[in-house]
Every structure is written in C-alpha cells, then in structure tokens.
C-alpha cells in the first residue's frame, strides 16, 4: 500500500508566502518611494525655485500628499461608479475611457506642471488620478474574470506583477532619459500617449467579461475529465455543477 502524500511543512509555505508578499509589495510601492525621494531632493528646487528652501520642500511634499489624499477619494468615487458602470455597460468601456483620458491628458498635464504654479500642479495631478481611477476601478474584476476559478489568482497576479517589472519599473528611467536628452516634456508626453495607445489596443482586443459565465469557464477548463478529487465546481451563484462522470458513485 502506497504511503499517503505528505504536504510540505507549514514553515516552508510561510516562507514562500512572506517572500511573495515582500516582492509584490516592493514592486507596488516602488513608484511612491521614487516620487518621495524626488520630492525631497529635486522637486523643491525644480518647481519652487523662488520659495524658501524649507517652504519649497513642504510644497513639494504637499503635492506628494495629494496623491495619497486622492487615492481613497478616487476609490470611493470610481470604485462605486466604476463597479456600477462595469456591471451595466461592461468592464472594457470604463477601462478604455480611462486609457483614452490618460493619452489625451498627457500634453495638458506637462503644460500645467511647467507653469510652476502650485494650484495648476494640483489640478494636473488630480485630473490624472481621475483617469487612472477609471482604469483601476474595473481592473480587478476585468482581469480576474479572464481566468478559470482554479487559476484565477495565479493568472491575475502573474500578469499584474510581470507588467509592473517589464513596464512600470523602467518608466521613470525612460522618462528621465528623455528629459535629459531633449530638455523638453514633449517626448515624455509622446511616451505616455504611446503607452495609452498600447493599452487601448490590448483592451480593445480583449473580450468583455461582464456577462461571462464563470461556471461554464470552469467546466471548459476541466472538460475531458473530472475535477481532481472527483467533486464539483462552484458556479457564480454559489451553486455547483457536477464534474463526476456518469456512473460514478
């Protein structure tokens, strides 16, 4: 009689979870750490050169704080309306609206930033975060619904983290290099527009998931054989669809 398979030690699983969480959180907050360092060392001299050094630093950090203040407000507004619109008209239209807005706002954003006026700088960041929220609100549901239940967390997480490393991490380096080479925000705005167009193309080619039957997706994923363990697969409404072959008891 074969010995039963043993699960890996709990300590090994815990180390994997801690390592994965550390890597994911580091990637997620990389841009905030980078902006915080720039706010303390660069932005006070770049955007507020006529102010007292202390006042310039405080104003620079205040623009940083706007991002944190806008995040929960954007989550309340766009989380609510993004969910309602996503259920009513679909995830793709809301996402496409945000991506198009980011592309259209690229040149006005840098024009407002270059004005060196604090109020216009706040306006530039706030409107940009509005368009970002329009994409971010339906993103979790949109991405998760592209995968069957048995692989949903892995599929959505791998896609999100890979894009953070491949596209998000080099973005500030590319923008800095463009500014150093051309001494103008125009190439950076064109870079943002190119990224927005790529997003529009990718989302436009993706299928709408609003009315996708997740139970059917799961059934197709295991078609040709029973689910491991000979059980059932849960449907969207909490019910179950049989995955046991005829004649099984």
| CATH classification, class level | Mainly Alpha
Average per-residue pLDDT, rounded, comes to 73
Global structural class: mainly alpha
| CATH architecture label | Up-down Bundle
Q: List low-pLDDT spans.
A: 222-249
Strand content: under 5%
How large is the count of helical segments? 9
Q: Helix-strand pattern, N to C?
A: HHHHHHHHHEE
In this structure, how is the largest beta sheet organized? 2 strands, antiparallel
Q: Shape from CA axes?
A: globular
Radius of gyration: 23 Å
Structure description:
This protein has 249 residues and is mainly α. The protein has one domain: Growth Hormone, Chain: A (Up-down Bundle). The chain is 73% helix and 2% strand. The chain contains nine helices and two strands, in the order αααααααααββ. It has a two-stranded antiparallel sheet with strand order 1-2. A hairpin with a 5-residue loop joins strand 1 (232-234) and strand 2. Helix 4 (91-113) packs antiparallel against helix 5, helix 4 (91-113) runs antiparallel to helix 8 (186-205) and helix 7 runs antiparallel to helix 8. The longest helix has 37 residues, at 53-89. It is globular. 16% of the residues are buried.
Layout: helices, strands, pairs:
Blueprint: H1 10-28, H2 30-47, H3 53-89, H4 91-113, H5 118-144, H6 152-168, H7 170-182, H8 186-205, H9 214-221, E1 232-234, E2 240-242
Antiparallel strand pairs: 1-2
Helix pairs in contact: 2-3, 3-4, 3-5, 4-5, 4-8, 7-8
């Amino acid at each position: 009689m074969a010995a039963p398979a043993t699960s890996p030690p709990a300590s090994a699983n815990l180390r994997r979870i801690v390592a994965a969480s550390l890597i994911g959180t580091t990637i997620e907050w990389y841009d905030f750490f980078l902006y915080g360092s720039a706010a303390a060392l660069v932005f006070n001299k770049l955007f507020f050169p006529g102010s007292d050094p202390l006042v310039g630093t405080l104003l620079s950090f205040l623009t940083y704080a706007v991002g944190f203040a806008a995040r929960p407000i954007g989550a309340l507004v766009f989380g609510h309306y993004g969910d309602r619109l996503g259920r009513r008209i679909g995830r793709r239209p809301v996402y496409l609206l945000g991506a198009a807005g980011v592309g259209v706002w690229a040149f006005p954003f840098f024009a407002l930033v270059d004005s060196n006026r604090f109020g216009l700088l706040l306006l530039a960041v706030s409107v940009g975060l509005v368009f970002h929220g329009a994409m971010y609100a339906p993103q979790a549901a949109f991405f998760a619904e592209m995968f069957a239940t048995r692989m949903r967390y892995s599929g959505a997480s791998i896609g999100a983290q890979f894009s953070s490393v491949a596209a998000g991490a080099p973005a500030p380096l590319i923008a800095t290099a463009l500014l150093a080479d051309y001494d103008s925000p125009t190439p950076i705005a064109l870079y943002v527009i190119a990224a927005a167009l790529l997003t529009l193309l990718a989302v436009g080619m993706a299928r709408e998931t609003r009315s996708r039957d997740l139970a059917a997706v799961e059934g197709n994923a295991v078609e040709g054989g029973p689910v491991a363990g000979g059980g059932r697969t849960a449907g969207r409404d909490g019910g179950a669809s049989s995955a046991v072959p005829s004649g099984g008891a």
